Amino acid sequence: MDDDKVFRALGDPTRRKLLDLLCEKNGQTLGQLCENLDMARQSATQHLGILEEANLVSTVRRGREKLHFINPVPLHEVYERWVRKFERQRLNLLHDLKKELEGE
Amino acid sequence: MTRETASFVYVTYIASTPEKVFAAISKPEITRRYWGHENVSDWKPGSKWEHIRANDERTVNIVGKVIEVSPPSRLVISWASPSQADNQESYSRVTFEIEEYEDMVRLTVAHDELEAGSDMATGISKGWPVVLSSLKSFLETGRGLDVFAKPKTA
């Protein structure tokens, strides 16, 4: 919904690590995530807040626990807008090169 | 026997109304335009629903039952591959929640009770982000994305 927030959220190694951890195992609690991070709960909470604000992480309450889920939908939007367009051009170039070299 | 399950929660914000989002999920003539499939059901609790590829073959790719319906805010369905339709264990569950959020709609799709590491779990985790991006694009611009797009390897 807001590209700036997504890019800002991704521009930090701890937050990318948090996304990697959720990619490995989705739906973790803060405590579970902290086990794999050398960091106080409070800083982890702040990082998760920024990821949630960018809609890269969504949370669900289950009883007393708050579970964190990776939400790749904004990443897909960034991919559509910022990667696919350029990828298409690059792949076309590779295709032309291949044709040239192989004399198709 | 307990199996290890996997859950996914996807959220997207769409500049639209809850009614339009609910219709976009439940009306086959709309789903085909951004999902490449028709979601076909009478959407009554206990009824079956089918996810049918919107082409000449009309392959049924997903089947399930309607568990809960309260338009325009909530829809819960079960979800299985047709080849495993007789196996109750193979059914996972999808919950659509539609809430107004400022002047937008917050759509949450929770897919749970999936068998961890199964082909279905892998497939849906690739599929939902594409489908939800396409739905957002469709409702906001009138154009969905090509959900079957693959990298062009020439």
UniProtKB/TrEMBL annotation, chain A:
Highest taxon of source: Bacteria
SUPFAM superfamilies: Winged helix' DNA-binding domain
Alphabetized SMART domains for the sequence: HTH_ARSR
Domain HTH arsR-type: 1-90
CDD domains: HTH_ARSR
Protein name listed in UniProt: Helix-turn-helix domain-containing protein
TrEMBL record, chain B:
Positions of the Activator of Hsp90 ATPase homologue 1/2-like C-terminal domain: 17-140
Lineage: superkingdom: Bacteria
InterPro entries the record matches: ASHA1/2-like_C, START-like_dom_sf
Family: Belongs to the AHA1 family.
The protein, known as: SRPBCC family protein
